[in-house]
Write a structure and sequence with these properties.
This protein is mainly beta. The protein is built from no helices and eleven strands.
Length: 124
Protein backbone atom coordinates (compact mmCIF):
# COMPACT_ATOMS: atom_id res chain seq x y z
CA UNK A 1 0.00 0.00 0.00
CA UNK A 2 1.47 3.32 -1.05
CA UNK A 3 2.12 5.83 1.68
CA UNK A 4 1.90 9.54 1.05
CA UNK A 5 3.46 12.11 3.34
CA UNK A 6 2.71 15.82 3.01
CA UNK A 7 4.85 18.63 4.35
CA UNK A 8 5.23 22.36 3.99
CA UNK A 9 2.09 23.66 5.63
CA UNK A 10 2.13 26.49 8.12
CA UNK A 11 0.87 29.91 9.10
CA UNK A 12 1.18 32.68 6.53
CA UNK A 13 -0.25 36.15 6.08
CA UNK A 14 -2.75 36.90 3.36
CA UNK A 15 -0.94 37.51 0.09
CA UNK A 16 1.89 35.20 1.06
CA UNK A 17 3.10 31.94 -0.41
CA UNK A 18 3.75 28.37 0.64
CA UNK A 19 5.02 25.27 -1.11
CA UNK A 20 3.51 21.94 -0.16
CA UNK A 21 5.32 18.69 -0.87
CA UNK A 22 4.07 15.13 -0.98
CA UNK A 23 6.40 12.16 -1.10
CA UNK A 24 5.16 8.73 -2.10
CA UNK A 25 6.79 5.58 -0.78
CA UNK A 26 6.18 2.10 -2.12
CA UNK A 27 4.56 1.38 -5.43
CA UNK A 28 4.61 2.87 -8.89
CA UNK A 29 4.41 6.64 -9.09
CA UNK A 30 5.19 7.86 -12.59
CA UNK A 31 2.17 6.29 -14.31
CA UNK A 32 -0.40 7.60 -11.85
CA UNK A 33 -2.20 10.89 -11.69
CA UNK A 34 -1.81 12.77 -8.43
CA UNK A 35 -4.02 15.35 -6.81
CA UNK A 36 -4.36 17.84 -4.00
CA UNK A 37 -7.54 18.32 -2.01
CA UNK A 38 -8.37 20.48 0.97
CA UNK A 39 -10.84 20.46 3.81
CA UNK A 40 -11.77 23.48 5.86
CA UNK A 41 -13.47 23.18 9.27
CA UNK A 42 -17.13 22.28 8.86
CA UNK A 43 -16.82 21.81 5.11
CA UNK A 44 -16.49 18.87 2.78
CA UNK A 45 -13.18 17.89 1.27
CA UNK A 46 -12.80 19.60 -2.10
CA UNK A 47 -10.65 19.25 -5.18
CA UNK A 48 -7.81 21.74 -5.56
CA UNK A 49 -5.51 20.52 -8.34
CA UNK A 50 -4.42 17.41 -10.23
CA UNK A 51 -1.58 16.40 -12.48
CA UNK A 52 -1.59 13.48 -14.85
CA UNK A 53 1.17 11.04 -15.68
CA UNK A 54 1.79 13.12 -18.81
CA UNK A 55 1.97 16.28 -16.71
CA UNK A 56 -1.44 17.62 -17.78
CA UNK A 57 -2.75 19.86 -15.01
CA UNK A 58 -6.21 20.75 -13.72
CA UNK A 59 -7.29 23.31 -11.17
CA UNK A 60 -10.35 24.30 -9.23
CA UNK A 61 -11.66 27.66 -10.36
CA UNK A 62 -11.04 29.10 -6.90
CA UNK A 63 -7.27 28.54 -7.14
CA UNK A 64 -6.63 28.91 -10.87
CA UNK A 65 -3.86 31.42 -11.50
CA UNK A 66 -2.69 31.31 -7.86
CA UNK A 67 -1.72 27.68 -7.26
CA UNK A 68 0.60 25.51 -9.34
CA UNK A 69 0.86 21.73 -9.19
CA UNK A 70 3.97 19.92 -10.35
CA UNK A 71 5.62 16.54 -10.01
CA UNK A 72 9.09 15.05 -9.93
CA UNK A 73 8.95 11.39 -10.84
CA UNK A 74 12.62 10.87 -9.97
CA UNK A 75 11.75 11.82 -6.39
CA UNK A 76 8.29 10.21 -6.35
CA UNK A 77 6.96 13.59 -5.30
CA UNK A 78 4.22 16.02 -6.13
CA UNK A 79 4.17 19.67 -5.14
CA UNK A 80 1.66 22.46 -4.76
CA UNK A 81 2.89 26.03 -4.93
CA UNK A 82 0.41 28.37 -3.24
CA UNK A 83 0.66 32.09 -3.95
CA UNK A 84 -1.54 35.12 -3.29
CA UNK A 85 -3.05 33.24 -0.39
CA UNK A 86 -6.39 34.29 1.03
CA UNK A 87 -8.08 33.56 4.34
CA UNK A 88 -10.48 31.27 2.45
CA UNK A 89 -7.53 29.03 1.56
CA UNK A 90 -7.21 28.01 5.20
CA UNK A 91 -7.67 24.25 5.37
CA UNK A 92 -5.96 20.93 5.81
CA UNK A 93 -4.40 20.02 2.47
CA UNK A 94 -4.20 16.39 1.39
CA UNK A 95 -2.35 14.79 -1.47
CA UNK A 96 -3.81 11.73 -3.11
CA UNK A 97 -2.99 9.14 -5.76
CA UNK A 98 -5.39 7.98 -8.47
CA UNK A 99 -6.79 4.47 -8.08
CA UNK A 100 -5.90 3.58 -11.65
CA UNK A 101 -2.77 4.07 -13.70
CA UNK A 102 -2.82 6.13 -16.90
CA UNK A 103 -5.78 8.19 -15.80
CA UNK A 104 -6.33 11.68 -14.52
CA UNK A 105 -9.24 12.22 -12.20
CA UNK A 106 -10.62 15.01 -10.10
CA UNK A 107 -13.33 13.25 -8.16
CA UNK A 108 -12.83 12.31 -4.55
CA UNK A 109 -13.71 8.66 -5.14
CA UNK A 110 -11.20 8.37 -7.99
CA UNK A 111 -8.31 8.59 -5.55
CA UNK A 112 -7.39 5.52 -3.57
CA UNK A 113 -4.45 6.59 -1.44
CA UNK A 114 -4.31 9.64 0.80
CA UNK A 115 -1.77 11.38 2.94
CA UNK A 116 -2.39 12.47 6.52
CA UNK A 117 -2.75 16.13 5.56
CA UNK A 118 -0.88 19.32 6.32
CA UNK A 119 -2.45 22.42 7.85
CA UNK A 120 -2.38 25.71 5.96
CA UNK A 121 -3.56 28.74 7.91
CA UNK A 122 -3.82 32.14 6.25
CA UNK A 123 -4.20 35.11 8.54
CA UNK A 124 -5.99 38.18 7.24
Amino acid sequence: QVQLAESGGGLVQAGGSLRLSCAASVGTFSTYGMGWFRQAPGKEREFVAAIGWRYTTYYADSVKGRFTISRDNARNSVYLQLTSLKADDTAVYYCAKNRNAYSVARGLMDFGSWGQGTQVTVSS
